[in-house]
Design brief:
By secondary structure, the chain is an alpha+beta fold. About 55% of the residues lie in helices and about 15% in strands. The chain contains 15 helices and twelve strands. The chain has a six-stranded mixed β-barrel with strand order 4-5-10-7-9-8. The chain has a two-stranded antiparallel ribbon with strand order 2-3. The protein starts with a helix and ends with a helix.
Length: about 425
Amino acid sequence: MGERGTFAGKSDYNHSEGRAMDFAGVIRLAFQALRRNMMRTALTMLGITIGITAVICTVAIGQGGSSEIQDQMLSLGDNLVWAEAGGRNVNGVRTGSGQTSSLTLGDMRAMRDTIPLLKSCSPQVDGHVQVVYGNQNWSTGFRGVSPEYLQIRRWFVAQGSVFSQEDLDAASNVALIGQTIAQYLFAEENPIGKTMRMRDIPFKVIGVLAPKGLAANGNDQDDFVLIPYTTAMHKVKGADWLDDIMCSAVSPEAVKPSQDQIGLLLRERHHIFATQTDDFNIRSPEEILKAREDASNTLTIMLASVASVSLLVGGIGIMNIMLVSVTERTREIGVRMAVGATESDVQWQFLTEAAVLSVLGGAFGVLTGIFAVQILSSLLGWPTILSLQTILIAVIFSVGTGIFFGYYPAVKASRLDPIEALRYE
């Protein structure tokens, strides 16, 4: 394409009362200039395309990981915080969790009644047991709890009902079972109303819990039996103390201060002096998952930063190509300025060409990024979330890259001396 094909006459870039170039004309001339060397244009756009694709993929993977951690936090319980027996030094040896008889029903009631940051509490007595139904048997765990346990742990009943206060008072032999037990012990039968045996004690199945799947540590959350804590204490385990006291704080912000208040209350009730170690442990899984989420967000930022390096490389490529273009079109620039184009006209033209390069590269990058995210999610099983905000940020980033790296070549082109430019060979 010759000079007239790239730059039009004076009327093309001057309005009737000013010298501002018509925007549509600028875009048209930018496409004409880029079509002069299609291979070079395509390779320049490729750098931006790869950068945008990489950023979209890393951010989508990071957001998917954070969402999965949030789901795990919700599945663990309603602002869950608990105290568990254990921690006392016995003859110089510190006992582990559940190894001391330090927690009592009195402790649970005191926590529930005197700490306003806790909205509900449930005792827990647990252990391992063999459950038998017909000629089938299954090794699992049992948990003796109160009905509040289901709200605290955000657990729902898929079939049947929950045991009542009357069942607690009478230490009834009733049970709720997880999905794993229902599958392996009862197979195709409906478990509701059936009688299974635990340690030769008959238990009537009154409910089946909704599935929760695997926990973050890989344990099967659906492989256990819920029974009234009175039944667990007096008939199954034969203990008058609690393994855990499960509680629900009034809000996520109340979890940490409620832990402090629980610690002070239990130390006072257990007559533990300042120099003595606690005979209990206070825990909250949300702290661990929050740390995992922070680590996931930090890793996402790091990966996105690394991916942004390819955008930087693509931007440098735009600058390089535009500088080459300025050199190749020096005489054309001189002709244009000779017929009345101002420095701002020339600068605007080259900035537009750089922006068009980056916008086209960014558009292809968004398309390939969406496709790549779907491939990663389906083939590798990685959790991904692709949000509109991520796509918009990627597009804005690509346009900004083109304008930033196209500015210097545009200024260089606009400052050429018309006379020297016309003499350029």
